[in-house]
Design goal:
heterodimer, A: Thiol Ester Dehydrase, Chain A, five-stranded antiparallel β-sheet, 31% strand, B: mainly alpha, 4 helices
């Protein structure tokens, strides 16, 4: 499959900043961002049928093993941010997402990040190769032949 | 065999982005995981892809995989015997 034929899977979610997410510097605390990423993953899962519960129905967990954040500009209470989540295809048995958080009013890029998830079976053992359902999922979205 | 060993080391450095490691830094008998080279089980996922792509070897069983990826020497011996590419 040629790279340009490959479909980009992307979901977006607008969200409000909770008062409790802001720290003493009056900016969104760095530790609030993982929850925004998680909300974005759930939004992606709903849109593209890759929900945590669906993964569990097939007999797998998908724990995070790597999370990266780059804080470009501070998010402030009262802003109207939007988070974009973009699926990155990898051959290894992983689920990789990139994230971009924008201030929806100015269009400015505020933060970016990446997450890596792997598959575990219900005995909490790492799964070495792509589960069948996951390969099927990639085929469904024309990511692989 | 020596050629294959150097090739394997280069492949490992490449797929795991071990920018500061040179092939000659990796001891042929040292454990790849844990103490030796310090790889972890998540790194193994990339090695599995490399084994299939480069040598046409599918590793499905994690317990077998642990023996194969013990060291460069065990990897090279397995590749030599089972490669289809």
């Amino acid at each position: 499959m040629k790279a340009e034929d490959q479909k980009i899977l992307k979901a977006s979610k607008c969200f409000d900043i909770r008062f409790s997410e802001v720290d003493s510097m009056k900016v969104v605390w760095h530790g609030s961002y993982p929850l925004y990423f998680e909300d974005a993953r759930e939004e992606f899962g709903r849109k593209y049928k890759l929900e945590y519960l669906r993964i569990a129905d097939f007999g797998y967990f998908a724990p995070l093993v790597d999370l990266q954040f780059h804080y470009h500009k501070p998010l402030l209470y009262g802003m109207h941010p939007r988070i974009d989540i973009i699926y990155r295809l990898t051959e290894a048995a992983k689920i990789v997402f990139d994230y971009e958080i924008y201030d929806n009013d100015s269009g400015e890029l505020m933060a970016t990040g990446r997450s890596v998830q792997v598959f575990m079976d219900m005995d909490y053992q790492l799964v070495w190769s792509n589960p069948d359902f996951y390969q099927e999922w990639k085929r469904m979205w024309n990511l692989i032949d | 065999m020596e050629e294959l060993i150097i090739e394997l080391k280069k492949q490992i450095i490449d797929v795991l982005n071990l920018e500061e490691v040179k092939p000659e830094d990796i001891d042929n008998d040292a454990p790849l995981f844990g103490e030796g080279l310090g790889l972890d089980s998540i790194d193994a996922l990339e090695l599995i892809v490399m084994m299939e792509k480069v040598y046409g070897i599918k590793i499905k069983d994690p317990s077998a995989g642990k023996d194969i990826f013990k060291s460069i020497n065990t990897m090279a011996a397995f590749v030599k015997e089972h490669r289809t590419k």
